[in-house]
Write a sequence for this structure.
């Protein structure tokens, strides 16, 4: 079993969710979204600790949630940055430790990540230094400019990236340092690593591993939980 630390980013906003509240604090069947996510890592023996990146003004509320749900693996709360890339970097700097250790970077609004997927991406990163979960794209994708289709992309080669993304700490720190020096902006951490020329391995994820971004996602999430409730009476939403 490969051990790892996790940096969980929970300093986003709720604009596309249609709420003024941070979406990770929204109730999902009676329990905040971020608690559902944290419990996955809390219950994983391979997880050695969690750096949780949050809004400074939400720290007290987060601390209360950790205490209420007996979440003990969060070793530090770190302030979020202006952009997600900045937030992740803050979390990585707070981690420290062995630079050859494995770190997972995960969205706080992805509560349906499975243990098998975590194991797969950790193993891959341990082997090659950088890996991410992704799923094959199911829809036909069009490249568009000015409301006109420029090109239909070849679907067989397209994958939708997910988190967690896993890295040797030395690899992801180098990517973030180089990104700052070259003023590079990336929508995910794997993209930063790609820009340094380091290979990133794909591990097939799950279509259930959705990021809760819109009100429609919350409807789907509630259905997922109802399905799990039938087989697991010990979950906190029961």
């Amino acid at each position: 079993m490969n051990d790892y630390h996790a940096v969980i980013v929970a300093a986003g906003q709720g604009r596309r969710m249609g709420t003024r509240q941070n979406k990770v604090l929204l109730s999902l069947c009676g329990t905040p979204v971020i608690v559902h996510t944290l419990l996955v890592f809390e219950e994983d023996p391979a997880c050695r600790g969690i750096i949780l990146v949050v809004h400074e003004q939400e720290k007290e509320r987060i601390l209360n949630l950790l205490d209420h749900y007996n979440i003990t693996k969060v070793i530090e709360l770190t302030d979020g940055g202006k952009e997600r890339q900045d937030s992740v970097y803050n979390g990585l700097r707070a981690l420290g430790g062995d630079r050859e250790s494995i770190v997972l970077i995960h969205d706080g609004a992805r509560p349906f990540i499975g243990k098998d997927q975590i194991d797969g991406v950790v193993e891959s990163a341990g082997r090659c230094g950088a890996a991410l979960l992704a799923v094959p794209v199911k829809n036909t994708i069009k490249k568009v400019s000015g409301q006109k289709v420029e090109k239909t992309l070849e679907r067989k080669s397209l994958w939708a990236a997910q988190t967690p993304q896993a890295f040797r700490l030395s690899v992801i720190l180098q990517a973030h340092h180089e990104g700052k020096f070259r003023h590079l902006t990336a929508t995910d951490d794997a993209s930063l690593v790609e820009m340094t020329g380091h290979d990133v391995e794909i591990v097939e994820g799950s279509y259930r591993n959705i990021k809760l971004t819109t009100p429609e996602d919350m409807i789907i999430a509630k259905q997922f939980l109802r399905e799990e409730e039938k087989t697991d009476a010990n979950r906190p939403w029961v």
Observations:
- The helical segments are 33-42, 59-68, 84-95, 115-128, 169-182, 189-195, 215-229.
- The longest strand covers residues 159-168.
